[in-house]
UniProtKB/TrEMBL annotation:
UniProt organism field: Nothoprocta pentlandii
GO MF terms, alphabetically ordered: acid phosphatase activity; non-membrane spanning protein tyrosine phosphatase activity
Annotated Gene Ontology cellular component terms: cytoplasm
Annotated function: Acts on tyrosine phosphorylated proteins, low-MW aryl phosphates and natural and synthetic acyl phosphates.
Broadest EC class assigned to this enzyme: hydrolase
Family: Belongs to the low molecular weight phosphotyrosine protein phosphatase family.
Source lineage: Eukaryota, Metazoa, Chordata, Craniata, Vertebrata
SMART domains in the cross-refs: LMWPc (SM00226)
Protein name (database record): Low molecular weight phosphotyrosine protein phosphatase
Length: 147
């Protein structure tokens, strides 16, 4: 879950979806991504994010959406990219009566201890690749832990 839902989160969502599909456990997971803000609702992911995923053989048809109250009641985990998102999500979750989601930084699972996954929007192609690599490491580690 991230601010605009067009760069980091679509990459993380697509990576996670591919990992669970490759491990044939996709029926055990409901995967989605959303934004804290409503800036980009309905937009496709950033072209550089799509290009990065395509370079790794991954396609996505994701359209940006904003997080809903129901997300906090439906999902077991809401994983975000940085402290600002974490703060916003925790604040929003406090307004939801029966929130069941555990809200964490995706980077808390990184074996290389890169806690924050920086927004590549104002960066270059290499920054999107860095986000992709972080997402792969974190999603693999997340999936390896017992749920």
């Amino acid at each position: 879950i991230f601010l605009g839902n067009i760069c980091r989160s679509p990459i993380a969502e697509a990576v996670f979806r591919k990992l669970v599909t490759d491990e044939k456990v996709e029926n055990k997971w409901m995967t989605d991504s959303a934004a804290v803000s409503d800036w980009n609702v309905g937009r496709c992911p950033d072209a550089r994010a799509l290009s990065c995923l395509r370079n790794h053989g991954i396609e996505t048809a994701h359209k940006a959406r904003q997080i809903t109250k129901e997300d906090f009641q439906t999902f077991d985990y809401i994983l975000c990219m940085d402290e600002s998102n974490l703060r916003d999500l925790k604040r929003k979750s406090n307004q939801v009566k029966d929130c069941k989601a555990t809200i964490e930084l995706l980077g808390s699972y990184d074996p290389q201890k890169q806690l924050i996954i920086e927004d590549p929007y104002y960066g270059c192609e290499k920054d999107f690749e860095t986000v992709y690599e972080q997402c792969v490491r974190c999603c693999k580690a997340f999936l390896e832990k017992p749920h």
